[in-house]
Amino acid sequence: MKIEVTREGGSAVLRLHGRLDREWAEQLSIVLEDLLRDGVRRLTIDLSKLTYISSAATQVLSRWQQELAVLRGEMELTSLPSNVREMFATMGWDSATPVAASGQGTVDLRQSSWQTGPNLESFGTYQTSSRVAGAGLSCRLHGNPTQLSQAPFEVNDCEIVAFPGEAFGLGLGAIGREYEECHERLGEIIGVAGCVAHFPSDGSRMADYLVGDGSVPPRVVLASGITCQGEFSQLVRFSSRPEAEAVPLSELAAVCLEASGSGVAGLVIAGETAGLSSARLRKSPSVPGTALRFEVPAVREWLTFAPERTYSVTTTLIAGVVARAPKGSLAAYLRPLGRIGKLYGHFHAAVFSYRPLPQRTVDLGTLLRGLFKDHQLRDVLHLIWDDRGEDGVAESALLRGVGWVAPITQIS
Q1: pLDDT in single tens digits along all 412 residues of the chain
Q2: Are 58 and 101 in contact (CB under 8 A)?
Q3: In the 3-class helix/strand/coil scheme, how is 127-143 assigned residue by residue?
Q4: Are residues 123 and 272 in the same domain?
């Protein structure tokens, strides 16, 4: 990424080259702050050489446009390439001015009809509520998960996948429209309700994200993963018992699976964490001539893994699939989830800075946009069950939150 600045009196022209991701959005903010402090009141930002823009960058543009408006100044975006214009459309922006369009509604949690679950669980208390009677999810499997340890992912191994508002998914991929554009950044990715979070594996220090608020859904290059589309049938509200440390993810998944009335279900959780057991790729699995090696010490070159739970007291979005006894093609995408319930699952998490979850808001899209707007996205992780006994860190655990769940009725 490169930022060129041409200054003339109270006006300045910025020419942006390359990818304006979250890290470079912070650098752009510093440049704009310096220009305004130095007396610039008219900004023209030339995007003709830009190849990508994230939601973090649009927040920076919106902030400094508002600052300029207070100072009776103005900002103009010019020469948008077609792919950047599509990204603006994805985020619901008017490309002429950096002002996002958003429509938000709330639903009062207390107006739902909640039922207390059976008093059988060891660590948590649960309440369920019917959301859409008879609703279900269609699930699509992407790529070949076993390829990760066999051969690099090449262009024909990957798919371009859209994440509209009624879909969610997870896997190995990158935000972008073409393999050539982003294959060097393939890493953990999670998409829910038109919002996508991704941690690039190219040495980036920060997770990136794209919040869809327009007519064009966010798109990602997906090497391997699972996507689900449809309506959620049940809400599950949970909290840890006073005498318990936290709710294990496997216990929560078991309760949600039971609430779905099925042997396989899709699940999205917004919760406050006690700690996460997780891993994340250190480099892209698209490097020619290489494949991920799981033996020690080679695995340390590929994966970031902590010897203890991480991210205690954070706000976390989790999405995935849980099954009692997966069959057919789905089985290759799931792994043992924990000791409780003999479950199998595949879950990714987007980790945000901590704020208590609002109990009044249960509209998933509204809640997510609030997370991306008001919280700091800290990480995107693949959740694991560390089953090494006393040497392991066991599984992820939550303190309280809400889950959206539905049976998976079709797999393709």
Answers
A1: 899 999 988 899 999 999 999 889 989 999 998 898 888 888 999 999 999 998 888 888 888 888 887 777 888 888 888 888 888 878 776 555 554 433 333 333 333 455 555 555 578 989 888 888 889 999 999 999 888 878 889 999 999 999 998 999 999 999 998 999 889 999 999 999 999 999 999 989 999 999 987 778 899 999 999 999 999 999 998 988 888 889 999 999 999 999 999 999 999 999 999 999 999 998 888 877 666 766 677 677 788 887 788 999 999 999 999 999 888 999 999 998 876 668 999 999 999 998 877 655 468 888 898 889 888 999 999 999 877 655 556 889 999 999 999 999 999 9
A2: no
A3: EEEECCCCCCEEEEEEE
A4: yes
Domain of 39: which CATH number?
A: 3.30.750.24
Please report whether residue 371 resides in a domain. Answer: yes
Structural domains counted in the chain: 2
Chosen domain end from 44, 74, 100? 100
Asked if 123 and 250 count as a contact pair (C-beta separation under 8 A), the reply is no
Shared domain check, 131 and 94? no
Contact 394, 249 (CB under 8 A): no
Give phi and psi for 292, each to the nearest 5. -60, 130
Domain that residue 128 falls in = 109-136+191-411
